[in-house]
Amino acid sequence: MRAILVRAPGGPEEMYLGEAPTPEAGEGEVRIKVAAAGVNRADLLQRRGFYPPPKGTSQILGLEVSGVIDAVGRGVDGFAPGDPVVGLLAGGGYADYVVAPAGQVAPAPTSMGIIEAGGIMETSATVVSNFDHIHVASGETILIHGGSGGIGSFAIPYAQCLGLRVLTTVGSPEKADHARQLGAEAFDYHGDWVEEVRQATSGRGVDAILDIIGAKYLEANVSVLARGGRMTVIGLQGGTKATLDLNALLTKAATITATSLRFRPLPEKTQIVEEVADRVWPLFESGRIPLPPITTFPLAEAGAAHAFLDSGQNLGKIILTL
């Protein structure tokens, strides 16, 4: 089968279209003939050698796909060849075929095309599981960093569906307009977004933060948390190490947590996928959550897709088409 391979850790130029063995569906697994694969920042980290897949997982990039069931392993009920599906993966998505545990696969939403569906599972599962993890509640205020990307384009309307007030940081006027159209109050991260958040909350701060930046924003994030606030770190675009005055956390009785969807055990992923299908698919179907802007690249141009995401110019989701 065709697959995107990586010669050595490095830039997008290290990626190339090559041949790899077609995987077989084992017990409890299904094989998906891939129609589209979402491109995520975790893929960029893996390409650079900083985010290796779990032991025993495909080394091929790709954490989410859409397509049709091609083969079903022993012990799998509820799926049959030809079924349109989306899959949450630990790896292997940038290829003609990928194998996944049946519990990490869901019927594709009927409200969108199979290509669009290739970019919704990873973001939906990440946001839903992390909102549950920090127990967001209706009436609270949440700060979502990166409101114009794949995560933000889903998280903003989903938060509103839960009754949250949404603040977000973005990097340009165009991206601010996009976030505002989704219903968020947007602040340019090149400016003093900390002060703007304080003013927007009348000095109280925010109840929750969904953070894709990591170390660079740690101190600033804590400074804008309200008493009893909770922050979850889901990305490390701004580094992995920072210092923190614990007294700032202590006096607010605040909580900092971090999660990685990729390394969760199968029972947790199965539950998350089921919850996404139950909660999120109806929101797409009703139009309460719109599809994000989508930029597509053919599989063979995966390197260009990575370079585009790296450039910071992207709005919404990038999808590789097969």
Quick summary:
The protein is α/β, with parallel strands linked by helices and 322 residues long.
Could you characterize what this model shows?
It is a single chain. The chain has helices spanning 41-48, 121-133, 150-161, 173-182, 193-200, 218-223, 246-252, 266-286, 302-311; strands at 2-6, 15-19, 29-39, 64-72, 84-88, 97-101, 105-107, 141-145, 165-170, 185-188, 206-211, 225-233, 255-258, 294-298, 317-321. It has 322 residues and is α/β, with parallel strands linked by helices. Strands 3, 4, 5, 6, 7, 14 and 15 form a seven-stranded mixed sheet that branches. Strands 10-9-8-11-12-13 form a six-stranded parallel sheet, sandwiched between helices. The model has no long low-confidence stretch (mean pLDDT 96).
Query: Given the C-alpha coordinates, what overall shape results?
Result: globular
Order of helices and strands: EEEHEEEEHEHEHEHEHEHEHEHE
Total helix count?
9
* Share of helix, binned: 25-40%
Low-confidence stretches: none
Cα Rg: 19 Å
Topology-level CATH name of the largest domain: Quinone Oxidoreductase, Chain A, domain 1
Please write the CATH class name of the largest domain.
Alpha Beta
Q: Bin the strand percentage.
A: 25-35%
> What is the number of E strands?
15
